[in-house]
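Support request, please re-run this one:
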Amino acid sequence: MNYELHLWEKLQSSNIAVVDYEKQWTYQEFVEHVFLLKKVLIEKDIKKLAFRLSQGFHAYVIEWASYLAGTVFCPINLTDPILRTEIILDTFQPDLVIADSQEFPLRDKYNTVVYKDLVNQTKPVYVDMKPTHGISNDIAYVIFTSGTTGTPKGVVIKRKGLENFLDWSVRQFDVSPNDRWAQYSSIGFDLSICDIFTAILGGASLVSFGNATDKLLPGPRICEQKITVWHSVPTVIDLLSKANQVTSEYIGGLRLMSFCGEKMFPSQLKDLFSANTNVLVFNTYGPTEGTLFCTFQQLHADDYKQYCKRSVSIGDPIPGYELIISDNENNKGELILKSEFIGVGYLDSEGREPITGFSTIRENASVSEIYKTGDYVYRDENGYLYFETRKDSQIKVLGNRVDLNEIDFHLRNLGCTQAKTVYYDKRIVSFVVNINKGSEDLLKELELLVPKSYIPRQMLKYESLPLNRNGKVDTNKLIQDLLELHTDDLQDEILGLREMVAEALNCGVDTVTADSSLGNHYKWDSLGHVAIMSLLESRYGITLNGKNVERTKNIKDILLLLGELESRESTS
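Re-run finished. Output below.
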């Protein structure tokens, strides 16, 4: 498909192309802005462009104009912290930054303009300009993901990878001018690229969901804007459910819903089909490095259960991709993507063309590009493919392998509308949203379903789990909450132990600190040591042996030892 000509043919259309919080924009207005900005980018020889704007008309124009001009674009969330934005810009090294206002804090460091100052409103004359930027013509965009070190990584995506995806998505989603497509995902999340290009190519109206209220409570805007196509992470189903918006009133008008970015659970599908029996659901899978998503499973109200195990099947590959399961044991192993359409690699820290590429494999006389996803998958007895877990979601507790996602699966089946389990500071902790049951009741029911090694040491209840910029559960925020809670609990535990030692030694609590040596205390003697061990046994139910006694030189030593002993007892 010639996307440039396809878009130009919509120049005289009065159909609505974009609905944002400013106004409704026709296809005529959209096409004029795209081709005018394309002309500016080519004339100014802009090879790389970054933009930091809200979801809406101008952001969508920039992506389309950049693509047609052969300019590599990099979208940045308007809500991203300035420090993260600076890291992204330092890595990407753009020729131009388009910001939302003159007050952009980094405008003196980078060549920055406001959109309205970059283009005038002169109606452009169409010229079939082909991209002219050398190697960058092979690249469509760079999207930054959160790296394991905390530093964003710039994933470089090929033009042919984007085009292969769009050829499939427009046809598979059967997009038409009758559709109103919800653009929910933030502009810096690659799901938004699927929205912006697929909807416009199909002639649909692209409706922004950039308002904070509409992010958390999307139901009313779905209804008001008569949305027919929805695309987001599955967590949004939980948001709708918590707000009692998974009903025919709110989602009954949807003909298609597509989900990606997280594991999808059978309970979520059950809720959707209970509210709308006619909706067609796509569960898709694909890391950013694979170019948007690369597998899909279609689901209907009358057949979805056959594709459900602990999660929902991720289906089969889209054209141009081959799936390889490495270290295949019992149809289970790490998923490897083999395709010429996967990304090129990661930008280095100075923005050069990617020197950190992905892998290749040699087959006979040819070499094929592959990406090792780090995701474990398995095929069931029917040949259906399921996402199992991330490599870093499988842990070992006293030699027992534990899959944190399995804990979440059971917690959802026990009535939790959201569940996220993490392993932090040598303990399993579950964060849940549950209205009807207390944490103790949930733990008791969980004990009947999983081995002892799977039982969380702690379960924290929330009204709703925090979300990150991409709409996924924000694990970092949960751990931060845990740390703050743990710090308070730790101080209480230390004070309790100080009071216990003061009682055993018959001294003032202010003379016993957390770090001071008990052996050097002025009231210390063998009887005092025996008294401490006796109190530990009566109050904590733990008996110290001779080896452990040698390790209890101060309050912090006792606290650490208690934690180790409790951990062993809880998993034995």
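The first strand starts at residue 16 and ends at 19. The chain is about 35% helix and 25% strand.
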